[in-house]
Each structure stands twice: as structure tokens, then as C-alpha cells.
Design goal:
Length: about 350
């Protein structure tokens, strides 16, 4: 295990040594939602592409950190490593059980990772992609050699499953996905290009109020909305539609590669229409931009690593591929990470 200090070694490559994911047992289908609120399967599918999502059951011990721990254990097994091989654990989440300790610390305890470093990263749906760039650069700089990165969220805890909250409750699901990043002597492996951006004034488009002061100017405070996601759906959709292709273009330009040079685009699953429009804009084959939102909904920071784990397990992503990770979400935030695997 690294002691967390740079030893002056030459820069190293970074490889994704293992992937894993974890899902709650309970499935919440569109038909289930029809019993809770005024909506329909047809309406939800037409606007989002979602047919079902998973939600946690706290009585069964499911939580953000529990899912995160299980996903990281699966990634370690895939990498043929033990928890004590980790130098650092990063958990990207906006739904930590507590403000203290960090979910990452709970994960370290859950998997028995000893005294490695641990911290949470909060960037909503962009969290995992931000984390990829941070973890990669920590390893490439020589400070750490093996990092566990998890994206985990349980937004069912922040949903109002009534007519008052139906515009958001139909969208989100719970999940966790993880990767283990490891130093390698092959310096060709790792990030080719990356980008991370934010639009601070756009914070009011997606927020979770906890008190009167948390409501943006012009919005009447409402105690019934405390601890529930508030989202301006039209504004967020416009933001995503405009940002998504520009982010891909920016990243391709930084790497000096064409859209067709990338073997797979692993994108945040926010809306199937947005994903399909991006694929058509860049002239990508259908099998180059993965979609699983129909089965899981928008799982926030878990979205990208869940897709990546499924792609790797199915053999659709192999060593040597160029893979672009892309995400955008609350903050407002957006980011990319183009890898040579």
C-alpha cells in the first residue's frame, strides 16, 4: 500500500483493473407508479424511455453505503485484488446517509479495507466522471497506486411518490457501480482527454431544500418540499440537449480524434431521447452508445459505472478500446473522461 506521498518516480499509466455493480432487490415499474400517482406507462416511456427502476428497502439493510460497498467488493473480485490492496476509496454520491462520516469511510469499514484514505465527492450525476479524472491523476502523479472509485445514489429517499412529486419520481432509481483503478508500467493506458465544467447560477434548476433559505429567489418556500428533489424539467432538458454534444465535441478536439475513433460512449442515463439525439448527431452506430435507462431509470452517480460494468461483463468493452465517459447533472455540472483502456 502507498503511503500517499509521491516518490519521484516517472509517470505511470493507469488501467481500469476491475468493475462491479450492485442493485436493490425491489423493482418499481411504471405500472406500480400508476397505483401511486396519476401517470401511465405510455406517458413515462414516451418522455423518458424508462420502464422500471430499482429502489432500496431500508428494512433489509439497503442504503447508499451498503450498495457502494457491494459494488466495490465486486470490482475488487473482478480485479483479483483484496480490500487491503486499496490505497484510497472515493465515493461519488449526493445521497450519503449522514453528513459525517463520509460514505467512503462506511465503505472502507464494510469491505475491510484497513486504513486507506477515504472521501466523498459530490457532483450529482457528474460525480463518477469527475472522480475518474481525479483518481486517474492521483495515480499518474505517483501518489497512489490502487484506487477504488464508486458511484452510488439512492434518490428514492428524496422522492415524493404522490401526484405532487410525479415529475421527478418517475425518473430516478437506486444503484451503485464501481471500478478499481491501478497503476501500470504501460504509459499508453489512461486518460487521453478530459473536461469538467459547472454553471453555478444554474443550481436552482435541480436542488434539495432543507430549510426556508434553500429556495431560490422567486420560489415560495414550502415545507412539504423539504428533503425532496426539486427540478425544473424543461430547463434541465434544454441544458442537457445543448451541453451533451458540445462536451463530446470538446473532448474529441482535445484528443484530436474523430467520433468514429471512439469504440464506446458510456453516457449518463438521464433521458433516452437525449441519448438517441446525440448518437444521431455524431453518426454513431447504435451499438456505440449504450442505453440501459429503460431498466434502471436515472441512477445519478451510479449511472455511468453501472453501464460500464454491464458492457464489460457482456464483452462489449475490452482492453485496448477507446472509451469516452460523459455525464451532466445538478450543480449544474458536466464532465468527460476519454480513456485508452
Amino acid at each position: 500500500m502507498s503511503n500517499g506521498t509521491s516518490s519521484g518516480r516517472r509517470p505511470v499509466g493507469v488501467r481500469i483493473a476491475g468493475t462491479g455493480s450492485a442493485l436493490p432487490a425491489r423493482s418499481l415499474t411504471n405500472t406500480d407508479l400508476e397505483r401511486l400517482m396519476e401517470t401511465s406507462d405510455e406517458w413515462i416511456v414516451q418522455r423518458t424511455g424508462i420502464r422500471s427502476r430499482r429502489i432500496i428497502d431500508r428494512s433489509k439493510g439497503e442504503s447508499t453505503s451498503q450498495l457502494a460497498g457491494e459494488a466495490l467488493k465486486a470490482a475488487l473480485a473482478d480485479a483479483h485484488l483484496s480490500p487491503t490492496d486499496l490505497d484510497l476509496v472515493i465515493v461519488a454520491t449526493m445521497t450519503a446517509e449522514m453528513s459525517c462520516p463520509a460514505s467512503a469511510s462506511l465503505v472502507v469499514n464494510h469491505i475491510g479495507a484497513g486504513q486507506c484514505g477515504a472521501f466523498d465527492l459530490t457532483a450529482a450525476c457528474s460525480g463518477f466522471v469527475y472522480g475518474l479524472n481525479i483518481a486517474h491523476d492521483l495515480i499518474r502523479g505517483g501518489a497512489y497506486r490502487t484506487v477504488g472509485l464508486v458511484g452510488a445514489d439512492t434518490l428514492s429517499n428524496l422522492m415524493d411518490y404522490s401526484n405532487a412529486g410525479r415529475s421527478t419520481a418517475i425518473i430516478f432509481g437506486d444503484a451503485a457501480g464501481a471500478v478499481v483503478l491501478k497503476a501500470t508500467d504501460d504509459t499508453s493506458k489512461g486518460v487521453i482527454a478530459q473536461a469538467m465544467h459547472s454553471d453555478g447560477p444554474g443550481w436552482k434548476e435541480i436542488y434539495v431544500p432543507r430549510c426556508v433559505q434553500d429556495f431560490p429567489e422567486g420560489v415560495a418556500p414550502d415545507e412539504s418540499k423539504y428533503e425532496h428533489v426539486q427540478m425544473n424539467g424543461a430547463s434541465v432538458f434544454k441544458f442537457a440537449v445543448g451541453t451533451f454534444p458540445k462536451l463530446i465535441e470538446e473532448t474529441l478536439a482535445k484528443a484530436n480524434v474523430k467520433p468514429s475513433d471512439v469504440d464506446m460512449y458510456v453516457c449518463h442515463q438521464s433521458n433516452q431521447r437525449i441519448l438517441t439525439a446525440a448518437r444521431e448527431r455524431f453518426g454513431l452506430a447504435e451499438d456505440k452508445l449504450y442505453i440501459n435507462i429503460d431498466r434502471y431509470g436515472n441512477t445519478v452517480a451510479a449511472s455511468v459505472p453501472l453501464c460500464f460494468d454491464e458492457l464489460k461483463k457482456s464483452g462489449r468493452i475490452r482492453e485496448g478500446a477507446k472509451v469516452m465517459f460523459v455525464a451532466f447533472g445538478g450543480g449544474l455540472t458536466w464532465g468527460s473522461s476519454l480513456w485508452q483502456l
